[in-house]
Design brief:
The protein has six helices and four strands. The protein has helices spanning 26-45, 50-70, 75-78, 86-101, 116-139, 146-169; strands at residues 12-14, 20-22, 110-111, 175-176. The chain has a two-stranded antiparallel sheet. A two-stranded antiparallel sheet has the order 3-4. The longest helix has 24 residues, at 116-139. The N and C termini lie far apart (62 Å).
Length: 181
């Protein structure tokens, strides 16, 4: 199979189910934002420990599920796709709770950074928040599962906590924001 088809040369792209829309359509902005987040998480994974890589790969697979549903506007075409399970959000929450149990409570705003993996996770968090904003905006006009919106909200928390956790594992303190006096 060739990677190029030339069908998109006119500025359109195909959706699951066969319909075509402009590449500038809000649906494509959503799927592109999810794809960008998946790439940011992949970038974090190359610097992560084996245990963290396993968790990041689970997230990447869930993002593919979400992307496929965003790319299938016809419910008939979406019925054969894998589904995002509520258990995915439960898992994120359990992993947040486990990581937070190792961390000192936050009393200040912190700056993104620290060790390389923490900086990459902070970057992925910001991409996640942007994707969430795009999805929320999209959901005002077209149906988006509440489960998907909850997943993005929880995932950004997961990324934040795990950025802090990886700094702690590297014996680096949080970088506290210094409020101007």
């Amino acid at each position: 199979m060739k990677i190029y088809t030339r069908r998109g040369d006119d500025g359109s792209t195909g959706l699951i189910g066969g319909s075509r829309i402009d590449k500038s359509d809000a649906r494509i902005e959503c799927t592109g934002s999810v794809d960008e987040l998946n790439a940011a998480i992949g970038l974090a994974a190359v610097a992560a420990s084996e245990v963290l890589v396993e968790k990041l790969r689970a997230i990447q697979n869930e993002l593919f599920i979400i992307g496929s549903h965003l790319g299938a506007p016809d419910p008939g075409a979406a019925h054969s796709l894998p589904v995002l399970e509520e258990a995915s959000i439960d898992r994120l929450e359990m992993e947040i709770d486990a990581a937070e149990s190792d961390l000192a409570p936050l009393k200040n705003f912190i700056l993104p950074g620290g060790c390389e993996i923490a900086a990459r996770l902070h970057f992925a968090r910001t991409v996640c928040r942007r994707a969430e904003r795009v999805l929320v905006n999209f959901s005002h006009d077209r149906p988006v599962s509440g489960l998907i919106l909850s997943y993005f909200n929880r995932l950004s928390d997961w990324l934040f906590v795990h950025a802090r956790w990886t700094n702690q594992q590297a014996n680096l303190p949080d970088i506290l924001w210094k409020k101007p006096s």
